[in-house]
């Protein structure tokens, strides 16, 4: 996938290791928005660590087990979406997203996730896509709802963040449900 328009002023593109400087600048702007939800934001604090983060996803892409995409608004990287995991043989994937404050409230994450869902179901023939979010991440929950995902359940005290256990919701979309949304 190369540049895919999301709106008149935003597009979705692959995010790769050679873009580490741009990714780091974006992470510096997004860190307070992203750190509570995506652990790798904490670890992308200089050029080498930003490159390593992007390389991990490039390696996943090479093995067809994950992929990372950036969202550019007026030519500036402001967020992204990813196949956190991708299991073609098992017919399932997990999708995640993040953004900096400049990208909030524009529908960019929902539009980008819609593109990944369409790719997973229509191009790759997967059966199930998942979306996980902390119960306190109301923006993430809103994306799942807007896309018509099904709330499968809540994992109580599933992970620890900053010394406190958090509950996580699991949402899903099945291929036959996706076809009905088109």
From TrEMBL:
GO terms for molecular function: protein N-terminal-serine acetyltransferase activity; protein-N-terminal-alanine acetyltransferase activity. This is RimJ/RimL family protein N-acetyltransferase. GO terms for cellular component: cytoplasm. The keyword Transferase applies. The keyword Transferase applies. CDD domains: NAT_SF. Keywords: Transferase.
């Amino acid at each position: 996938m190369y540049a895919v328009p999301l709106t008149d002023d935003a597009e979705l593109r692959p995010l790769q290791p050679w873009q580490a400087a741009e990714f780091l600048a974006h992470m510096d702007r997004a860190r307070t928005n992203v750190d509570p939800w995506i652990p790798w934001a904490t670890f992308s604090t200089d050029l080498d660590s930003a490159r390593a983060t992007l390389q991990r996803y490039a390696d996943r892409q090479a093995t067809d087990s994950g992929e990372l995409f950036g969202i550019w608004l007026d030519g500036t990287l402001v967020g992204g979406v990813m196949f956190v995991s991708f299991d073609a043989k098992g017919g399932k994937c997990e999708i995640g997203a993040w953004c900096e404050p400049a990208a909030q409230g524009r529908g960019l994450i929902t539009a980008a996730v819609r593109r990944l869902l369409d790719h997973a179901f229509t191009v790759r023939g997967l059966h199930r896509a998942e979306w996980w979010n902390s119960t306190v991440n109301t923006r993430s929950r809103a994306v799942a709802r807007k896309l018509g995902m099904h709330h499968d359940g809540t994992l109580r005290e599933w992970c620890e963040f900053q010394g406190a256990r958090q509950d996580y919701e699991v949402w899903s979309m099945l291929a036959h449900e996706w076809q009905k949304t088109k």
